[in-house]
TrEMBL record:
Keyword set includes Transmembrane: no
Protein name as annotated: ADP-heptose:LPS heptosyltransferase
Gene3D superfamilies: Glycogen Phosphorylase B
Keyword Metal-binding: no
Gene Ontology MF: a single term: ADP-heptose-lipopolysaccharide heptosyltransferase activity
Alphabetized UniProt keyword annotations: Glycosyltransferase, Transferase
Organism (species): Micromonospora rhizosphaerae
One of the GO BP terms on file: lipopolysaccharide core region biosynthetic process
Gene Ontology cellular component terms for the protein in this record: cytosol
Length: 343
């Protein structure tokens, strides 16, 4: 019989919302395998908003400040408050794995070990935890899913209904920004894509920092609010399109179809699970298992094009438009198939 754990601590302090979403199936698998456990998650804001209402999570902790050493201090505090008997972490800096090991807990401190270049990151997490005897085989195919509370669902429905009305085609949300310049699709491409979708009757909504957005902006709110809006878009057979960034991963985890645009990151490793388009697939500088060591990563200084990331520009508007139109058709078909039959 598999060992049961009563006190589980999951540490994800990589910084991005998308990082936490990739780990979410592992969190849910651990909770399912240990239904009586007190499961705590230590992560950063604003991603923490996505798991505070999750029935699988007992408590969510975050670092107390943003100064150097905050993450290590947060781990020390969590261990002092209650020593876990199982600790799992994606975080390897600042001696955090050593802190967890020294607590005496059963630990899995390197979910990044020896990854194949074509294996998705989230799948790698699940496989390692399965090999460690902490997850069952059924967990290996789990996808990220966020728990959207009824209030956020209802608010999302009201917002999307107000913005799109009764359209002739499903809505499309453009996530036209990314946290890193190396992941951004050219602005002119967003304009052209928006115009082509509008011409075909698709209401175009946007999420991003653009002061002159290529569509109707979704109202700003917290992440649960955005998840509710994405859920409403998905219920209408809509699609969310954008780069490899947290909001697009949130859309997929909320149940919306996605078209994701990959450049510096390898879609085989970081794919979101809908339609994942890879720009410049043969780029000699891409390192699927060591993305931060790529020459373009931190400053978006592309060795192939001084004007911007060549891999993102390589994803032309016609290719993306075709993928979005195909995805809206497939998503709309699923919505119709799920409608109750009339007598």
């Amino acid at each position: 019989m598999a060992e049961a754990y009563a006190e589980i601590l999951v540490v994800d302090l990589l910084g991005g919302m998308g990082d936490l979403l990739m780990l979410l199936p592992a969190v849910h698998g651990l909770a399912r395998r240990n239904p009586r456990a007190r499961l705590r998650v230590l992560t950063h804001e604003p991603g923490a908003e996505l798991v505070r209402a999750d029935p699988a999570v007992t408590e969510v902790r975050t670092p107390r400040h943003g100064r150097p050493g905050a993450e290590r201090a947060a781990v020390v505090e969590a261990l002092t408050e209650s020593r876990p008997d199982l600790a799992v972490t994606t975080t390897r800096y600042d001696g955090i794995p050593d802190l967890l090991t020294a607590s005496g807990a059963r630990c899995v401190t390197d979910l990044w070990r020896r990854p194949p270049p074509d294996q998705p990151v989230g799948t790698r997490y699940l496989e390692i935890l399965h090999v460690e005897g902490l997850l069952d085989r059924v967990d290996l195919t789990a996808l990220p899913r966020v728990h959207v509370e009824e209030e956020a669902r209802a608010a999302g429905e009201r917002t999307v209904a107000r913005l799109v009305g009764d359209p002739v085609a499903p809505p499309v949300v453009l996530v036209n920004d990314a946290g890193m310049a190396v992941k951004r699709w050219p602005r002119r491409h967003w304009r052209e894509l928006s115009a082509a979708l509008t011409e075909r009757g698709h209401p175009v909504l946007t999420v991003g920092a653009d002061e002159d957005p290529p569509g109707v902006p979704l109202p700003r709110g917290d992440l649960p609010t955005l998840a509710g809006q994405f859920k409403a878009v998905g219920r209408r057979g809509g699609v969310v399109v954008g780069p490899d960034t947290g909001p697009v991963r949130l859309a997929a985890a909320s149940g919306a179809a996605t078209v994701a645009l990959f450049g510096a990151t390898d879609a085989r490793r970081y794919g979101i699970g809908g339609v994942d388009l890879q720009g410049s697939p043969s780029c000699p500088h891409r390192q699927p298992t060591a993305i931060t060591e790529q020459p373009c990563w931190w400053e978006a200084a592309c060795p192939l094009d001084r004007t911007g990331p060549a891999c993102m520009a390589d994803l032309g508007v016609p290719v993306v438009l075709d993928a979005v139109l195909d995805a809206t058709g497939a998503a709309a078909g699923r919505c119709l198939a799920n409608q109750p039959r009339l007598p």
